[in-house]
């Protein structure tokens, strides 16, 4: 109840249009509650119960009511031998039936033995489990998309922060060069170069702002959140904490693998349902009817008007034994068997793919940790070089070109570090996914 209440409060806050701090956990939980994919997967789980009920209904009695009203303007006549009526050597032409006939009744059918029905009942539990696993897989896919887009938004925001800082620093340099130019200590070309650089930085800032808007809109779409919602991503969500590299995960516990194995189980049941075509079927049928006949419209009419009503019923035991079906049943069984063998190949390939994902995620994690440390040191050195070059420029010991190159190198080092953090975070998501632990991001 507490979780539902928190999600409700988040939903109110998001829909109100207020600027909201959005952690990765909040984003993931919001998506699982609001994204269409997650909702549809849950509806499929609900629908699976109705499919199971449909299968079970085949084992229950089938009761129906029937009725008809028939008018015979011309009654067919039949020619019979008069010997049966004491008139040998003659032929009698007689009409059988009445102008009006009306019937109403009930019929019942009950399967006593039908192998396909029994197989369907056995498959009911597997059907439910299949959709439950599919729901879990859909949730994991939603979580992965949201997490990757969440970190992508952060990277764009960091790039904008760096550009804003670079713009401020370049503005200070421009002011210095402007003062030097006014005092005849700097050339016009130096001032123009600074102004051009500021214009380029400002253009890039506008492009990054546009990319941030597009990336945020993509994140909101994958969350199922109104696009107009204003969000803030807290910086602490992007701290690099070395992932725990535990023992290798059991591939057979992965959702993708479990779903394929459950699908294989359902295909086996499907093959057995096809094989049921070789078995005989036995059913019970019963019916009770009430019929009225006469020369006039029979409803509500009485015998004095020539309309007579009577009832009749029948109970039957029906046996159907397939002897030859033109090899149709055999073809269906073989098709079902091919589907099973084809899926088994998919299962083998999926096991290899899941193992590959884990190995690659481990490699990427380790490589990105090394890259982050290298880029962090590069960033420190670039910042130090920029500071020294700036002091040297002010003292006339460095050229404007040296200063601009130092600024570009510092900005590039910071951007490289930011990209390294993004690559690490995406690799971290891949590792969590390969271990089958994406749901931990919701806690």
Automatic annotation (TrEMBL):
The protein's GO terms of the molecular function aspect are:
efflux transmembrane transporter activity; porin activity
Supply the name of the protein: TolC family protein
Superkingdom of the source species? Bacteria
Taxonomic source organism? Flavobacterium potami
Q: Which UniProt keywords apply?
A: Cell outer membrane, Coiled coil, Membrane, Signal, Transmembrane, Transmembrane beta strand, Transport
Q: Which residues form a coiled coil?
A: 333-392
Its subcellular locations are: Cell outer membrane
Query: Which protein family is it in?
Result: Belongs to the outer membrane factor (OMF) (TC 1.B.17) family.
- Does the keyword Coiled coil belong to this entry? yes
Recorded GO CC terms: cell outer membrane; efflux pump complex
- InterPro entries registered for this protein in UniProt: OMP_efflux, TolC-like
Signal peptide segment: 1-18
Q: What is the lineage of its organism?
A: Bacteria, Pseudomonadati, Bacteroidota, Flavobacteriia, Flavobacteriales
A Pfam cross-reference name: OEP
Keyword Glycosyltransferase on this protein?
A: no
């Amino acid at each position: 109840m507490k979780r539902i209440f928190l999600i409700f409060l988040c939903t109110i806050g998001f829909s109100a249009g207020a600027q909201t701090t959005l952690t990765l956990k909040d984003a993931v939980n919001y998506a699982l509650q609001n994204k269409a994919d997650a909702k549809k997967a849950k509806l499929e789980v609900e629908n699976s119960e109705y499919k199971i009920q449909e299968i079970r209904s085949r084992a229950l009695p089938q009761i129906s009511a029937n009725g008809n009203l028939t008018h015979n303007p011309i009654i067919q006549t039949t020619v019979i031998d008069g010997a049966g009526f004491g008139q040998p050597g003659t032929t009698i032409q007689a009409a059988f039936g009445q102008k009006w006939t009306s019937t109403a009744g009930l019929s019942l059918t009950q399967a006593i033995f039908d192998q396909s029905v029994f197989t369907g009942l056995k498959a009911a539990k597997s059907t439910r489990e299949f959709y439950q696993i599919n729901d879990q897989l859909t949730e994991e896919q939603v979580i992965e998309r949201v997490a990757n887009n969440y970190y992508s938004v952060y990277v764009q925001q960091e790039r904008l922060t760096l550009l804003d800082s670079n713009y401020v620093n370049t503005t200070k340099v421009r002011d210095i060069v402007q003062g030097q130019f006014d005092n005849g200590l700097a050339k016009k070309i130096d001032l123009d170069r600074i102004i051009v650089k500021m214009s380029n930085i400002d253009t890039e800032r506008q492009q990054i702002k546009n990319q941030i808007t597009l990336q945020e809109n993509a994140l909101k779409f994958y969350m199922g959140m109104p696009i107009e919602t204003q969000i803030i991503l807290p910086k602490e969500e992007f701290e690099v904490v070395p992932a725990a590299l535990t023992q290798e995960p059991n591939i057979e516990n992965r959702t993708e693998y479990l779903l394929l194995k459950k699908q294989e189980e359902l295909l086996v049941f499907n093959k057995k349902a096809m094989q049921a075509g070789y078995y005989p079927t036995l059913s019970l049928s019963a019916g009770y009817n009430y019929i009225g006949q006469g020369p006039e419209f029979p409803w509500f009419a009485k015998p004095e008007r020539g309309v007579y009503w009577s009832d009749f019923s029948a109970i039957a035991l029906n046996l159907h034994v397939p002897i030859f079906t033109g090899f149709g049943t055999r073809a269906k069984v073989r098709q079902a068997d091919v589907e099973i063998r084809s899926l088994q190949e998919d299962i083998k390939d999926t096991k290899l793919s899941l193992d590959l994902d884990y190995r690659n995620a481990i490699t990427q994690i380790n490589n990105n940790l090394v890259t982050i440390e290298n880029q962090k040191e590069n960033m420190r050195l670039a910042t130090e070089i920029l500071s020294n070059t700036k002091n040297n420029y002010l003292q006339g010991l460095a050229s404007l070109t040296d200063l601009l190159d130092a600024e570009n190198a510092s900005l590039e080092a910071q951007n490289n570090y930011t990209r390294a953090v993004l690559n690490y975070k995406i690799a971290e998501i891949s590792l969590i996914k390969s271990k089958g632990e994406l749901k931990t991001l919701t806690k």
